[in-house]
Amino acid sequence: MTIDLDALEAAVAEGEKKNFFVAPIVKELIAELREARGERAAVVAFLREGDTVCMECGDRATLDLAYRIECGEHRREEER
Fold first, then answer.
1. Cα separations (Å) of 61 from 23, 27, 28, 79?
2. Nearest to 36 by CA among 64, 60, 2
3. What is the reported pLDDT for 77?
4. Which residue from 43, 46, 8 is spatially nearest to 29, judged by alpha carbons?
5. Cα within 13 Å of Cα(50), Cβ side
6. pTM of the prediction?
7. For residue range 20-47, what is the model confidence (pLDDT) as tens digits?
């Protein structure tokens, strides 16, 4: 599941127009999520650029890791 940050920001803005209180932390969290997604994309791009064959196992380890990060598999492993 991916949170649509644009839709979330729009909902916050709409709520503020109607004078609903929005805690400042909500906007901070949205900004942090945007930053984290940008960092994740940079890590994935770095891993793809530097794709090398693992000397120990002969596997294309960095491409596999890039894919797992991009699709969230690394988090599913942590949850187990």
1. 43, 37, 35, 22
2. 2
3. 54
4. 8
5. 11
6. 0.56
7. 999 999 999 999 999 888 888 888 887 7
